[in-house]
Design brief:
Layout: E1 2-4, E2 7-8, E3 14-22, H1 28-35, E4 42-46, E5 54-56, H2 58-66, E6 71-75, E7 77-78, H3 81-87, E8 91-93, E9 114-117, E10 120-123, E11 126-131, E12 134-139, H4 143-165, H5 170-173, H6 176-185, H7 191-197
Helix pairs in contact: 2-3
């Protein structure tokens, strides 16, 4: 599982198979990607994390929606925020800038088969899930396994939140005093190890 910090432009959440595109200065790479898009894919744009130009605007977002693309995740900047918000397609980026592309570089041979996002490289074999907290990339063949794990942690956290509201502190729930006592005897003990022992995992 790979995560990156991004800002939600149009709000909402999105999940779908990665549709990669390496931006080199022209919108045509997106149009070509849409030619092979399946309903529900998420366009993942690699613009090298550049902050001196925006690579996705309202026309690309409109075309993506028309092609059945469920959302756009950009390792770079977007523009036309108000128009993208009106379109309603979930878009996630590093921020906004009115300046469009500033160059036209040669298109790599793998421009439509992989995209680098932060320190990660993703392909059509990956799935992306994005919300207001950022984006998570998961190998498609491990999706069910990771969903089960995430649902288990979510359910644990919801139970713990309900108990806090009912007056039982999180420290009580996770036997924090016991952890401090055990750590005093064994300084190598981590809180995560303790949580696993008391079945209170909230940091996995």
């Amino acid at each position: 599982m790979r995560t990156v910090s991004l800002t939600s432009v149009a709000g909402g959440r999105v999940a779908g198979r990665v549709l990669p595109a390496q931006h080199v200065g022209s919108v045509d790479v997106f149009l070509e990607a849409f030619e092979s898009a399946a309903e529900g894919d998420v366009l993942v744009v690699d613009n090298g994390g550049r902050r001196d130009e925006a690579c996705v605007g309202d026309l690309a977002a409109l075309e993506a929606a028309a092609a059945g693309v469920a959302g756009i995740v950009i390792w770079g900047l977007h523009r036309d925020t108000a128009d993208i918000t009106a379109i309603g397609l979930p878009v996630f980026s590093l921020g906004a800038l009115p300046t469009g592309p500033l160059r036209l570089d040669p298109q790599p041979a793998d421009a439509l088969s992989r995209a680098t996002i932060g320190e990660w490289t993703v392909t059509r074999d990956d799935v992306v899930l994005a919300d207001e907290d950022g984006a998570v990339f998961v190998p498609a063949d491990r999706l069910a396994e990771l969903f089960d794990m995430a649902e288990s942690i979510r359910d644990t956290e919801h139970r713990q939140a309900d108990e806090i509201r009912a007056g039982r502190s999180l420290r009580e729930q996770v036997s924090f005093k016991q952890y401090l006592e055990r750590r005093a005897v064994d300084p190598s003990l981590t809180f995560r190890q303790h949580l696993r022992a008391v079945r209170g995992a909230i940091e996995e």
